[in-house]
C-alpha cells in the first residue's frame, strides 16, 4: 500500500493509533486493484482515523463511518468538511443494531478499538458479518493486556488499595487472544487470524500527560476509589510510570509501548 502525501499527513495528524489502521488495511484490502465504488463500513469509528486514512488511499471507495456517539461524528464531520473529503458518509448508529443496512452490502468492515466497548461484542460482530458481502473481510482492533495505560491503571489501583482492580477495563476486554478468535468464529467468521502488533506512542513529554483525566479508561478506575484515597492516586501512578518508562533527561520523549491485536476474518 503506497503512502500518498495526504496519507502521511493523516498519520501525523491523528497520532499513533493511525498506525494500527494502516496495518488493518494492509491485512485486508492490501494493494490489489479494487472495483469502482467498493464499499467500506467503519463501525464505532470514533473521530474516523481508519476512514480518513482509507479515503486518502482508496479514492474509488464508498466509505460509511458510524458511531454511537453524536459528538464523535460531529468531530469527524468537521474534519471531512475542512479537508473537502467526498467519499466518506457519516452516521450516528448503534453498531449492535445496524438495521438500515441490507445483508451482503459491504466489501470490508472495520472496528478499530471500538468493538471493545460494546456491551455485547458478539452481537456487534454478527451484525458486521451480516452486512458483509460473501467472502468480504473484517478487521477488529483490540488492545492487549499489557497496553501501557491499562497496565499502569491496574498496578496503580492494586498498590493504592492493596487488592486487584475489581472491574474489567473495556480497553482490554478482548485481550485474551483465544477468546477473541472464539467470539469472531461464534459470529460466523471463517479463517480467523489474530495478529499481534506493537507500536510505540512517542508524543508524551511529561508523565502527567499520560494520566489524561476525562479519558474514560482513567475515569472508570478513579471513580471506584474512595474519596479519602483519591489524593494519592496521581503520585502513585507517576511513580510507577517513571519506573516502567524511564527517560535519561527531562526533555526526552517518553516511549510508551502499545501492543494490540488485529483480528482478521472472512464471511
UniProtKB/TrEMBL annotation:
Membrane-spanning parts: none
What this protein is called in its record is Methyltransferase domain-containing protein
Q: Which InterPro entries match?
A: SAM-dependent_MTases_sf
Signal peptide as annotated in the record = none
Supply the source organism for this entry. Dictyostelium purpureum
The GO molecular function terms of this record are: methyltransferase activity
Quote the Pfam families the UniProt record gives. Answer: Ubie_methyltran (PF01209)
